[in-house]
Amino acid sequence: MASRSRAGSRPATARTVATSYEGAASWVLAILPGRGTGRDVGVVALDKEDGQVVVTQFTDSTTWVKTLHLCRNKPPDVILLPQSALATPRYALAAESEANEAAGSASPEAAMLVKGLQTEFKDVPLIGVARKYWNEQAGFEFLTQLIVHDEDRLGVLTACKPKYYALSAICALFKYLETSYSLSFAPKTLKIGYSALEGTCLIDADSVKNLELVSNMLNKNSKQHLLGMLDKCCTAMGTRHLRSNILSPLTEPSVIDARLDTVEELVKSEERLRAIRKALEQLKSVDLDKIVSRLLAAEKRPSTGTRSTSRGSIFPSFQSSTDPSSQIASKLDYLLSLRNFLSTLPTLRSSVENSDSIILMQVEKVLQDDRLEQIRAVIEENVNPDIWKKGDEKRSSGRDANGGRHARLFAIKAEKKRLLDVARETWRENTSDVNDLCDTLRDKYGLEGLALVQGGKGSAYVFQLTKEEWEEKKGEIGKAFTNVNVLKKRVEFSSLDLQKRNARLQESEQEIYLMSEEILEEMFQEIRGCVACLYKCSEAIALLDMLAAFADLSAKEDYVRPEWTDTLAIKAGRHPLHEQFRLSDGSFVPNDTYASDAASFQLINGPNMSGKSTLLRQIALLHVMAQIGCFVPAAYASFRPISALLTRLSNDDNLESSLSTFASEMATMSMILAALQAHEGRRCLVIVDELGRGTSPEEGVGIAFAIAEEIIRSKAFCFFATHFKELSIALPSRYPNVVALHLETDVDEKQPDFSLTFLHKVRDGATPHTHYGLELAKAVKLPSPVLYKARLVSLTLESLAEDGRKRSSEGKLVRRRRGLLELKTRLREIATGKTDDAGVLLAQLRQLQKETIEMLDETMDAAQDVDVDVEAEASKTEDAEEIEEVIPSAAGWRVTEIKPEDLSLAGTAEEGTVDEEDEEDMLPFD
C-alpha cells in the first residue's frame, strides 16, 4: 500500500482499490427505477439479520448518485430489479412468468443504473423479478398487514400511500421471498419505516474510503478510523446506529442541536454519564433487534418444490432446522435473553430520570412504556425464574444444572402443563441412566478420569479421558469403546450402551421441546401485540448509547460544541484521528479554517509533507462529526450544514475499472460535478487534493482550472490543494470569492544543504517559497552549478510574471469587487452576531470602514479606466454587483458624516480612530 505521505509529484504505482465499506452484506434490496425522464426511483431494503425494513422514494440524477449512495450504506446481499431492466436476467421469480412475459429491453436510464450497480457490487447478484410482481396495490396490502401497530404506523402508511414506486418494490420484495424461499412473516411484527433522503448528507464511496470513515486504508483490521475512534458504544444497537450516521450524517440543524444538547448535558454531568454507561454495560451481550426478529417476525413454511440457488439461502438467520426441537430450543434461548434484557431496564430508566435535554426525556418515556412491563409479566408468568439468571448465561455442559441445555429444558415453569412435567421426569431418569453408566465403567476399568461431556444444542454425551490415561489403558479398553476421537490433550469416545441411552435421552428432550412449544406460542401471541414497544426501545437505546459514547469522548478530550451559521469557522482545529491515535511524531499543530460566501473557494498550496492533505481531511472529518451530533476537536467551531460531502483525494490507478490515474481523477470529478447539479451548490462541501497530477503539467493546469471554475460558480465551499502556482495567480484575479492560502515553511536558501522546515501552519496568500523543489534538489546533492542555474532561471521567470500582474488594471478591478463582496459578508456577520456590546460593535464597524476606504483608494482608478465586459464580469460577481446597487459609485462620491459620539473610540489614529481629514471619505453606516 502507498504511504500516507508522498514525496514526489507523480502519483504512486497502481494498486487495486479495496472495498470502501467494511462489514458483511446483510440487506436485500428491491429497486424500481421510473420510466421516462422523471428519474423517480423506489427502494425497499430488508435487513436479513434483524428483519428491519426501510422504504424510500426519491428523484435521482442521470448518474443515479443517490441510489448508489443508498445501496452503499445498506450493503446488499441480493438486489432485485424489474426483469425488463436486465438484458439477461440471472434468475427468474417464477417459471410461469417466462412463458407469459418477455423480458423486454432495458431503457437507457435503467441500463445505466444496472451498470452502476454491477460496477459497485461485483459479487452481488442482480435478480430479475417479473413485472407483474411490482404491484402498487399488493404492496400496500403487504405494508398494512406486516407493519407493527405503534404510534408511527399511521405516519408510515400516509407517507407510503402515494409512493407508487416504493409500494411496487414492497410487493416485489415479499413476493420474491415467498416464492423463492418459502419465507413469510407474522402479521404486525415488522418494523417498517419510511426514510426520506432529503434529511441526510450524501458521502460518496471514494470519500468514505479516503477519509477513513469506517475502515483504515492501510490495514483493514485496524481500528484507526473515525468509526473506530467514536465507537465507545456498549451495545451492538449503538454501534450499528453510529455506523449508519457516519455514512449518512444529518442535515437539519434543529435535529442535530437536540443531539448536541444531550451530549452537552452528559458532559456537564459526569455522574449521570457514568450511571448511563454502567447501565448500558449490562446490555453488552444483548442485541434486541435480533432477539425480536427471531422470536416473532420470521416464520418458515414447509418448502414444497422450492428451487434452490448456488448461493444457498440468503436468510440463514431465519432458517428452521429440520429438527423441530432445535428451532424451539433457539426460541427459548432468545426468550431467556429477552427476559434478562427487560430486567435491566429499571436501572437504565433511573439513569435518565429528571433530565433536561429533549432526547433523554424521550428515552425515559420510551423506557416507561407499560407494554414493556406487560411483556415482562408474560415471561415471568411462564418462565422459571431460577433458570439461567442474569450474569450466569455461560452455556456450560455435562451435569451443570445451570448449563444452556438445562435452562432450555426447564425454562417453562412446572405445573403449566401436566404432560410436560411427566416428560421432564422421564428426561431426569434417562440422564441418571447415562451418569450411572459412566460410574459403572469408571469402576470396571479403573478409569479415575473418565467423564461425560456434551457438545452444543442437541448433542449426545460422549466419554472423555486425558490423552495420557487413554494411552495407558488403551490396550485394555480399546475394544470396549467406539467412535474414538483423539484431540490435542484429550480423547473422546462412546459405546453401544451410551448410544442407546443417548437416543432415549434425546427422544425425551424432543418431547419436552414439543410440549413447550404450545406454551411458547401462547406467550408469543400475547407479546406480538406489544412488539412495537420493543422496536422503539431498541431505537432509543441505540441513540442513547451513541450519544453517551460521544459525551464520554468529548469529556475526556478538549472538544467543543459546534454551532450552525452561514460560515465555516474553525478556531484551532485538530485532526481527530491524528490526535486520538498519535499518527505523527511530536505534537499536532492546530489550524484555523474560515470559509464564507466571500471566500467560498480556497486554494491551498505548499510543498509535499507540509500538511495540505491532513488539513483537507481534518476539515471533512470535523464536518462529519458535527453533523452526527458530536463535539469536535477545536477551540471554536461553526459550520454551514451540507447535504453532500464530495472529495477527490487518492492519486492511485483503479485497476478494477481499468482506469489510469488521470482517468480515475476525471471519473471522480465527473461524479462530483453531477452531484453539485443534483444538490444545491451552497449545501455542498468539496475537497480536492492535487487534481491533474496524472497528466502533463499543461493539461493538468487546464483541466484543474476548468473544473475549479465550475465549482466556484456552484458557490459550494471548496478546499482545493494544488502545486500549480498558475491557479493561485489566475483564479483569484478572476473571481472575488477565491482565496489563496499556503502551509508555512521555513527555508534558508543560502544554506548549501537541505534547509526546508515544515511548520504545518496555514497562512494567507500563495506560498512565498516558490522554489521548494530546489531545496529538495539540495537533499539529493545536485551539483552547485546546476542548482545555481536552476535558481537563476526560476527567479527570472517569476519576476516577469509578477511585473505583468502588477500592470494589470483588470486585476485591481477584481480586487475591488472582492472587497465589496467581503464587505457584504462581514456586515451580515455583524448583523447576525451574538455580541450585544455596543462598544464592540462600533469598533468592528469602524475597523471595517477603514479597511474598505483603503481598498477603494487602491482600486479607484482601475475601476474608472479599464474597459471591461460588464456582463461577463457580472456573471462572475453577482454578489459584488448587488452591493454596488446599494453603495454609490466611488467616482464623485460624498458620504454621510459619522458623528464622533456615534463612533468614538479611545486611542490614536493608528489604533483605529479616523483623522478629521479622512471624515469626508467615510462610508455611510446608517
Automatic annotation (TrEMBL):
InterPro entries: DNA_mismatch_repair_Msh2, DNA_mismatch_repair_MutS_C, DNA_mismatch_repair_MutS_clamp, DNA_mismatch_repair_MutS_core, DNA_mismatch_repair_MutS_sf, MutS, MutS_con_dom_sf, P-loop_NTPase. One of its GO terms (cellular component) is nucleus. Residues 221-581 form the DNA mismatch repair protein MutS core domain. GO terms for biological process: mismatch repair; reciprocal meiotic recombination. Keywords: ATP-binding, DNA-binding, Meiosis, Nucleotide-binding. Residues 302-325, 872-926 are annotated as: Disordered. This is DNA mismatch repair protein MSH3. Heterodimer consisting of MSH2-MSH3 (MutS beta). Forms a ternary complex with MutL alpha (MLH1-PMS1). Residues 303-313 have a biased composition (Low complexity). Residues 316-325 have a biased composition (Polar residues). Residues 912-926 have a biased composition (Acidic residues). One of its GO terms (molecular function) is ATP binding. Residues 599-795 form the DNA mismatch repair proteins mutS family domain. Belongs to the DNA mismatch repair MutS family. PANTHER family: DNA MISMATCH REPAIR PROTEIN MUTS FAMILY MEMBER, MUTS PROTEIN HOMOLOG 4.
